[in-house]
Design goal:
Layout: E1 15-16, E2 20-24, H1 30-44, H2 57-72, E3 77-83, E4 89-99, E5 104-111, H3 120-135, E6 140-146, H4 150-158, E7 162-172, E8 178-186, H5 188-191
Parallel strand pairs: 5-6
Antiparallel strand pairs: 1-2, 2-3, 3-4, 4-5, 6-8, 7-8
């Protein structure tokens, strides 16, 4: 039986956790997203090479149009991390580097500076991992991060992702210097053993 066309795979409008709503970006998010980027520019710069692509709110508007189109085409599933109680945009995440035939996904995430240290990244990643395994029949879900990014590493470890290895000098940091990447992953049989799996 052939795999379904990704364009026909239904996706939820939002994922709700105890404190967060994770949902596709909207064009109306431009000002809030720009504010989050501006608040966090210095804090994100060592880990997020894309930060330099956003020099004004029009750059954010262009990104949002592309993100919506890629969502519709199932090429990339970028989402906003929103605090349910306040409606405040706290950061971004998503399922990236998607291989639909193999059903593999990578979860990326970032938080604005003021939202760090409250478990929001852990909650958002958990929601996306549940989506990947429970709804999208994932065969593998990865989290990759610069080996120096201890906060990101702790999120993966806290959720039970398994460190598979380190890709030494596998990419460049924002200054163009070689840097190494940790690769964490979960397979379905590992996911189902986790206490937080649905």
């Amino acid at each position: 039986m052939p795999a379904p066309d990704p364009l026909l795979i239904p996706l939820p409008d939002a994922l709700d956790g105890p404190r967060l709503r994770v949902r596709p970006y909207l064009r109306d998010d431009a000002d809030a997203l720009w504010g989050a980027v501006q608040e966090s520019r210095e804090h994100l710069e060592p880990w997020m090479p894309w930060i330099h692509e956003y020099q004004d709110v029009d750059d954010v508007r262009s990104y949002l149009v592309r993100a919506q189109a890629r969502w519709q085409l199932r090429e990339d599933l970028a989402v906003a991390i929103v605090e349910r109680a306040s409606g405040r945009l706290l950061g971004g995440s998503g399922l990236h580097r998607i291989n639909w035939p193999l059903r593999t996904f990578e979860i990326g995430y970032w938080l604005r500076r003021g939202a760090e240290g409250h478990g929001f990244a852990t909650e958002a990643v958990q929601l996306l991992a549940c989506l990947a395994f429970d709804t999208l029949d994932a065969n593998r879900v990865e989290i990759r991060m610069d080996t120096r990014n201890e906060r990101s590493r702790r999120v993966a470890e806290r959720l039970g992702f398994i460190l598979e290895g380190t890709l030494r000098r596998a990419t460049a940091d924002v200054q163009g210097r070689p840097t190494s990447i940790h690769v964490f992953a979960l397979l379905p049989e590992e996911y189902w053993r986790l206490p937080w799996a649905e």
